[in-house]
Amino acid sequence: MKAVLVGAGGHARVVLDAARSSGAVDVIAVIDAKPELAGTRFDGVEVIGDESALAKARALGATAIVLGVGSVDVGDRRRDLYERIARSGFELPAVVHRAAVISPSATIGDATVVFAGTIVNPGARIGKNVILNTAAIVEHDVRVGDHAHISPGAHLAGGVVVGDRCHVGIGSTVLQGIRIGDGAVIGAGAVVLADVPAGDRVAGVPARSIARVAGLGGPDR
Q: Is 97 a catalytic residue?
């Protein structure tokens, strides 16, 4: 299918690479909020304007939108973008790099992107608009909520539940059966041995709450 890519930054470049690798999504145009990018080319694809150019993209034959906006924290911005784009009438396909391994019994939600080296094992259920970044491991029966970001090299052991809008940092490890509440943030390299409440921020080995230190009023851990 022909698609328009939203975003012209570093994350969008990796999304575009995954789309090209998949063989299922042909990105024919890019849109970006920065007006100075209009008329330029992004990895060989024309930037046709901002979101107001979606009608032009449709005229060019695009029937789908691929979201190329990343996140380094809770995924509110990506959630809001997804909800706005979802009302446009375009399809929002999942994009899976051909070098990712997805079990036939796993499910991947709309607008989710899966990068090279990622493994999603049997029974896993991935929500909509999720980022499964490079070389992430999602073990059997894991649940990942909508708009979450599982960063490069993060490992989710069997039966882990990750809530909506969570950010699981690069190189972190979450032990089997752990539940991470909505909007929680797991710091880079953390080892999570206990459940994480909604909205909490944890870091370290073993992971402990840093929300109170940051003045966010989180529970001591």
A: no
